[in-house]
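Contributing new records

If you add data, match the layout below exactly. Sequence lines come first and carry their own label; structure lines follow with theirs. Keep one chain per record. Anything else will be rejected by the validation script.
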Amino acid sequence: MAEYTMDAISVDGLILPLVGQGGWCLGDDKARAAEEKAALRRGLALGMSLFDTAEMYGGGRSERLMGEALRGVPRESYQLCSKVLPQNAGRPDIFRSCENSLKRLGVETLDLYLLHWRGGVPLRETVAGMEALAEAGKIRRWGVSNFDVSDMEELWAVPGGNRCAVNQVLYHLGSRGVEYDLLPWARAHRVPLMAYCPLAQGGTLRRTRQAFLTDPVLLRVAQKYRVGVLQIMLAFVLRHGDIVAIPKAGTPTHVEQNAQALALASDIDARDWDDIDATFWPPTAKMHLDIE
């Protein structure tokens, strides 16, 4: 059962900050490794203590870099989330995948372990594997990623499926389809959404990243509050108060800008949000779940 405060979500006692740090593409360029590690540590110092990665990201490179960045940091001061590929989500592969992720991260337990997206392994088998990992102390909570309403309803029909802690989905200003039915479903069942790519790093709907950066409405609002357009975009996700955002940032400066967006979300005037809504419309009908 999820509970909410001004800047965090508690999922059965697991405290998740509303702003975490994504690991997509981290570790792919050795020349940037030192700066990326510094960015992760800077984010932790600013309260962005949730680190999200996956076995798929760089074939494990993201997990290794995160592990190196957090080496020597007290384990209780941060939360780790990784994801298992769908083809590895059955027995015995899920145990092997989880163990490999733990080794790359250099820890004994994951705070969250997610099914990256649906594949051919039956949900019943995946849930049983997740529950076994939790019993063994390898993970604290488990969840899913890229699940639409129909997927969540199917999961809920599986024994133990209602113990799903979170659903991680693509959500940003140009990809708002989840607002129509998935977000209401998640709230009704108290399953927090985690927004990946909240700065429009991915997705197929609406616009490219450059189109956001040059949009006159976003530029006007950003100028008014003396921030950047990307901070407005992150504040858009955080204004809900019950969605965790995990933007990726490869530099300490970018991390600092992300950290400022939480306070910004409550500062922006309702009329400015109305202007943004008039440009980037909320959904009026069911939309296909956008996935990156």
